[in-house]
Amino acid sequence: MAAAEPFRVLDRRGADFRLRFRRSRNAVAGAVLVTLVVLVAIFAHWLAPHDFERVNILQVWAVPSAAHPLGTDALGRDILSRIFVGAQVSLFVALAVLAITLTVGVTLGMVAAYFGGWADTLIMRTVDIIFAFPELILAILVAAMIGPGITTVIIALSLVWWPGIARLTRSLVLQLKNELFVSAAIACGSPPHKILRRHILPNIVAPLIVRASIGVGFIIMAEATLSFLGIGVQEPQPTWGGMIRDGLQALRTDPYLALYSSLALAITIVGFNLLGDGLRDILDPRIRDR
Amino acid sequence: MIRLSGWALGTLAALVLTTAAHAQTFRTNIVADPAMIDPITYSELVAGDVMSNIYEGFTGLNAAGEVVPALALRWEPHDDNLGFTFHLRPGVQFHSGREFTAEDVKYTLEELLKPGNKGGLNAPYLDNVVGAEAMKSGEADALEGVKVVDDQTVEIRFNQPEVLFPIYPIWFMDKGIVEELGPEWMLQASAGTGPFKFAEWNRGQDILLTAHENYWGEGPYVDEVRFLIVPSDDTGISMFEAGELDAIYINNTAEGRRILKDPQFEDELVKVPAAQIRYLGMNQNLYQPFKDIRVREAICTTIDRDGMVAGLFDGAAFPLYGQVTPGVAGYNPDLEPIAYDPERARGLLAEAGFEGGANMPPVKVTTTAPNKDEATYFAATLKQELGIPAEVEVVERATHIKAMNAGEVAFFPWGWSAGYPDALYFLSQVWYGPSVYNRARWQNDAFDALIEQAQQEPDNVKRYAIYNEAEQILLDDWGTCPLTVRMQVAAVKPNVEGVNLTPFRFLPFNTVKVN
Amino acid sequence: MLAYALRRVIGLVPVLLTAIVLCFIAIQLVPGDPIMVLLSDQSGNLELEARLRADYGLDRPILVQFFDYFSGIFVGDFGMSFRFANVPVTKIIGTSLAITPILALSALTLAVPLGIALGTFAALRRNRPADIITIFVVVAGISIPNFALSAFFVYLFAIKLDVVPVAGWGSIEQAVLPVLVLAIAPMGYITRLTRTYMLEVLQQDYIRTARAKGLRQRLVVYRHALRNTLVPLLTTIGIIFGGLLSGTFVVETIFNIPGLGRLAIEAIFARDYPVTMAIVMLFTVFYSLINLAVDLLYGLIDPRIRFGEEQG
Question: Hey, which end of chain C has fewer CB within 10 Å, N or C?
Answer without folding.
Answer: C
